């Protein structure tokens, strides 16, 4: 998997929307299951969503996100073959329409994470802590920062997402932390206030 987001799957259903490395969309409707129980997941087409992102056969994704915005499914993705570019699409009836593209922050890590936040912004985070929030409609930089993320022998950064709290957005970083016998997940929440001047474009 290269992407996961919680949100609306249909007019009356919420759940988890997953994106595979090959661009397939999977949905897991309902609330998170109890500890030890399995979450029933299947093709997103079962909920009226497309079964896949607009990815050519044999193409692999490095990062991706998908979410319903204003009733239309939107997708952002980074291809393995072009790791510095984020491609943006929106679904129109049964077709995917390209709506733009964005560059990843310069000097960013090879690893990147994408997530939709707010009413229509894209949150781009890289493995070396660069965070960029842009509006989809015109590419305006809403906020940018550099966060300290866990890296090195005792920790590996995995991904990040936005957490909306009132009018503010927090960035939640997921890392794996090495203990004596195994790796354990670690979540770190960092504020992302609007910036008067961007750290990077």
Secondary-structure content class: mainly beta
User: Which stretches are poorly predicted, pLDDT < 50 over at least 5 residues?
Assistant: none
- How many E strands? 15
In which range does the helix fraction lie? Answer: under 10%
> For the terminal residues, how far apart are their CA atoms?
28 Å
Backbone CA Rg: 17 Å
The fraction of residues in strands falls at over 45%
| H/E series | EEEEEEEEEEEEEEE
Mean pLDDT: 86
For the largest sheet, list the strands in their spatial order. 1-2-3-4
Largest sheet: 4 strands, antiparallel
Number of helices: 0
Which term fits the overall shape? globular
Describe the structure in your own words.
- The structure is a single chain.
- This protein has 201 residues and is mostly beta strands.
- The protein has no helices and 15 strands.
- It has strands spanning 3-10, 13-19, 25-29, 42-43, 61-69, 72-79, 82-92, 95-103, 112-117, 121-126, 130-135, 141-146, 155-165, 168-178, 183-191.
- Strands 1-2-3-4 form a 4-stranded antiparallel β-sheet, with no helix packed on it. Strands 5-6-7-8 form a 4-stranded antiparallel β-sheet, with no helix packed on it.
- The chain is globular and about 45 Å long.
- 30% of the residues are buried.
- The model has no long low-confidence stretch (mean pLDDT 86).
